[in-house]
Design goal:
It is built from 14 helices and no strands. It is an all-alpha fold and 206 residues long. The longest helix has 23 residues.
C-alpha cells in the first residue's frame, strides 16, 4: 500500500501546514479570551492579524467587538455560577443567598475583572449590565433557573414573578460589582453582605 493511501485524515491534517494554519471562529474566541485574561484589553485589528484573517472575516465570525466581549464574559461567568451551585450548602432562601454570595465573591476577587472595571469601567458596565446586552439577559435567565428550582420544591415563595425577582437580584449584584462607578468607592465584601441581606428580604427570608 502506498504511503498516501495509508494516511488518515488526521495525519494529513497534521502534515499539511496550510490546513493547520487555517483559523476558525473558535480559534478567534479562544485567542481573544486569552488576550483579555492577560491584558484586560481587546484589539480586533491585532486579533485578526494574529489569526491570519482579514478584519472582514473576523467581524463575520464575531459580529462585533461588544458581542465577542460578551461571549468572553459569559464563558467566565457561567462556570462560576454552576460551581457555586455545587459547593454551596443550605436550601431554599439560604441556598439561593449562599450561591449569590459565592458568585459575587468570586467576581470581586477576580484580578482581571477588577483591573478591567478600574481601567475601563464604563465599557464594562455596558457589556455586563445593559438591559440590551446578551450577557445580562443570559445572567437573568440563569438565575431564574435556580429560583424556579427552589420554588418547585416549595422552599421559596416569591412575592413577584420569578423573572422580575431574578432581574432585581442581578441588579443588586451589579451594584456591588460596579460600586466604584456608582459610589466612587472600591467594592468590598462588607458591602456584599448588605447585598445578601437585600436578596434575602426579596426572597421572603429574614
Amino acid at each position: 500500500m502506498s504511503e498516501s493511501k495509508r494516511k488518515t485524515p488526521l495525519s494529513k491534517a497534521l502534515s499539511d501546514k496550510s490546513l493547520r494554519s487555517r483559523a476558525t471562529p473558535l480559534d478567534a474566541f479562544n485567542l481573544a479570551k486569552k488576550h483579555w485574561l492577560l491584558t484586560q484589553k481587546l484589539n480586533v485589528g491585532e486579533l485578526a492579524e494574529e489569526l491570519g484573517v482579514s478584519r472582514a472575516t473576523l467581524f463575520r465570525w464575531i459580529g462585533n467587538k461588544d458581542l465577542l466581549m460578551g461571549e468572553i464574559m459569559w464563558s467566565l461567568y457561567k462556570p462560576t455560577v454552576l460551581n457555586a451551585r455545587k459547593v454551596c450548602s443550605g436550601e431554599g432562601v439560604e441556598y439561593v443567598v449562599n450561591v449569590f454570595r459565592e458568585v459575587n465573591t468570586q467576581i470581586l476577587n477576580s484580578q482581571p475583572m477588577r483591573t478591567w472595571l478600574h481601567s475601563d469601567g464604563q465599557y464594562a458596565v455596558s457589556i455586563l449590565s445593559s438591559k440590551s446586552s446578551h450577557f445580562h439577559s443570559r445572567m437573568v435567565e440563569l438565575n431564574s433557573e435556580l429560583l424556579k428550582q427552589e420554588t418547585a420544591k416549595g422552599l421559596i415563595h416569591p412575592a413577584m414573578t420569578i423573572d422580575s425577582l431574578s432581574y432585581f437580584m442581578c441588579r443588586i449584584g451589579n451594584s456591588c460589582i460596579f460600586s466604584e462607578m456608582i459610589l466612587g468607592q472600591e467594592p468590598d465584601l462588607n458591602q456584599l453582605e448588605e447585598a445578601c441581606t437585600a436578596v434575602r428580604i426579596l426572597l421572603g427570608g429574614r
